[in-house]
Amino acid sequence: MENYKTLEIVQRSPKSSVFHLNLNRPSLRNALSLDFFSEFPKALDSLDQNPNVSVIILSGNGAHFCSGIDLKVLDSISERSQSSDRGRTGERLRRHIKFLQDAITAIEHCRKPVIAGIHGACIGAGIDVVTACDIRFCTEDAFFSVKEVDLAITADVGTLQRLRASLGTEAMDEGIRLVAEGTPIDAGGVGIAAKSPLAVTGTKAVLLRGRDLTVDQGLDYVATWNSGMLLSGDLAEAVSAQIQKRKPVFAKL
């Protein structure tokens, strides 16, 4: 078995054709680092090419499945946006977003069925991962949250595209409506108003455009969208606010 920094491959029984691919950063609640995005496609490919593997179960070591993307990845994106040449900066950002997307899309390219076993937190990029899987099982303590907008980002690694494809537009809208029923309308409005205006606008635009696009087309669209929107200072402000445990302050549109 190959050794990885962020993953662990386990065969529970020598005769079993079911292999476990575990996210393996339990001390950080399996936050997804840049190493993960490099290693994950390689690990999947090795299992895909192994004739002894029939099924892959993807789960997380420790108390949670995945707490989302590592803030260091967001720092790297923010650093890439600091340049006076906005055109070339945008092109570099787009390539970086496609690199992150391709790592998750590797699940769909794998010939073997990939089953997600979800427990505890499944947040942000964790949802990107499980929506790309073929089957999803959850424990009773599993909970989910799309957190990208809290970090001033329009979710761009697959959630907005694959969640609609998995649930369908009506089921997705129903889920949003049910959440709204438990939240006072004014409070919900204030919550949205506190987010990055660029991230909120981008999320709406990508969701609406995605109704007419395939998953691949939708991923390409949001990569292009964010290559422009991430040139703003909102991401850096959101990350700083998270680290400093304060409310972010964003410029108006």
Describe the 3D structure.
Strands 1-2-3-4-6 form a five-stranded mixed β-sheet, covered by helices on one side. A two-stranded parallel sheet has the order 5-7. The chain has helices at residues 34-49, 71-80, 86-109, 125-132, 159-167, 169-181, 185-193, 197-210, 215-229, 234-244; strands spanning 7-11, 18-23, 55-60, 114-118, 121-123, 135-138, 143-145. Helices cover 51% and strands 13% of the residues. The chain is α/β, with parallel strands linked by helices and 253 residues long. The N and C termini lie far apart (51 Å). It has a single domain (7-244), classed as 2-enoyl-CoA Hydratase, Chain A, domain 1 (Alpha-Beta Complex), CATH 3.90.226. Belongs to the enoyl-CoA hydratase/isomerase family. Pathway: Lipid metabolism; fatty acid beta-oxidation.
What distance lies between the first and last C-alpha atoms, to the nearest angstrom?
A: 51 Å
Note the quaternary state here: single chain
Radius of gyration: 18 Å
**Mean pLDDT over the residues:** 88
Q: Write down the overall geometry.
A: globular
Output the CATH homologous superfamily.
Answer: 2-enoyl-CoA Hydratase, Chain A, domain 1
Report a brief summary of the structure.
The chain has 253 residues and is an alpha/beta fold. Helices cover 51% and strands 13% of the residues.
